[in-house]
Design a protein that fits this description.
The structure holds two protein chains of two kinds. In chain A, the strands form three sheets. In chain A, strands 2, 5, 6, 10, 11 and 12 form a six-stranded mixed β-sheet that branches. Chain A contains no helices and twelve strands. By secondary structure, chain A is an all-beta fold. In chain A, a hairpin with a 4-residue loop joins β8 and β9. Chain B is mainly beta. Chain B is about 0% helix and about 55% strand. Chain B has no helices and eleven strands. In chain B, strands 2, 4, 5, 6, 9, 10 and 11 form a seven-stranded mixed β-sheet that branches. Chain B has a four-stranded antiparallel β-sheet with strand order 1-3-8-7, with no helix packed on it. In chain B, β9 and β10 form a beta hairpin. Classes of the chains: A mainly beta, B mainly beta. Chains A and B meet through β5, β6 and β11 of A and β5, β9 and β10 of B.
Chain lengths: ~120, ~110
């Protein structure tokens, strides 16, 4: 069965520093991979996704992620974070079901705390 | 993307009662999904709703506890029945778009059961 592991539950970082949020997945088939962000008291917003093609994916708010098939990883990076990036970040893998639709399996989440 | 609204945005309920959450999308979609996010936890899929057929429930979730309706291609409801404090969570709906591989989420309904 597919699963997603986010290796860090919390990541503290200073403003303008680079950050990497780690995500590993397990799957025996081709996958679609996603990063979502959840700001306090809000729903989930799609940051970026990997479906196929270039392994380096760029998303909103200056974030990017690299798909590494050999290491089954999809780590999220930003070269310089802002206070406003403080949020919960979820990595997810899309799984094809017998019913013909895709459902998402989420990691446990990583809380990014940006300090001045 | 998609514009998704949920009602209510939050509620406080007494144990033993039921709450129906509405999810409205700005355009027709094939599948709608309902997730639960318990306090400090990740998201877990409750069920998938396809218009014109019964919802498909994930392991650990049953129709008697979480009945779902999907009367048309832009609307769905999730009812949390006979609530207990353990049902206190954020309930989110989502829809799939584009090639059906991408899901977009509503703002969530924050439920507190006393």
């Amino acid at each position: 069965a597919q699963s997603v592991t986010q290796l860090d539950s919390q990541v503290p970082v200073f403003e303008e520093a680079p950050v990497e949020l780690r995500c590993n997945y397990s799957s025996s088939v081709s996958v679609y991979l996603f990063w979502y962000v959840q700001y306090p008291n809000q729903g989930l917003q799609l940051l970026l996704k990997y479906l196929s093609g270039s392994t380096l994916v760029k998303g909103i708010n200056g974030f990017e992620a690299e798909f590494n098939k050999s290491q089954t990883s999809f780590h999220l990076r930003k070269p310089s974070v802002h206070i406003s990036d403080t949020a919960e970040y979820f990595c997810a893998v899309s799984v094809r079901t017998a019913g013909g639709y895709n459902k998402l399996i989420f990691g446990a989440g990583t809380r990014l705390a940006v300090h001045p | 993307s998609a514009v998704i609204s949920q009602k209510p945005s939050r509620d406080i309920c007494q144990r033993g009662t039921s709450l129906t959450i509405q999810c409205q999308v700005d355009s027709q979609v094939t599948m709608m999904f309902w997730y639960r996010q318990q306090p400090g936890q990740s998201l877990t899929l409750i069920a998938t709703a396809n218009q014109g057929s019964e919802a498909t429930y994930e392991s650990g979730f049953v129709i008697d506890k979480f009945p779902i309706s999907r009367p048309n291609l832009t609307f769905s409801t999730l009812t949390v029945s006979n609530m207990s404090p353990e049902d206190s969570s954020i309930y989110l709906c989502s829809v799939d778009r584009q090639g059906r591989e991408t899901q977009y989420f509503g703002p969530g309904t924050r439920l507190l059961v006393l």
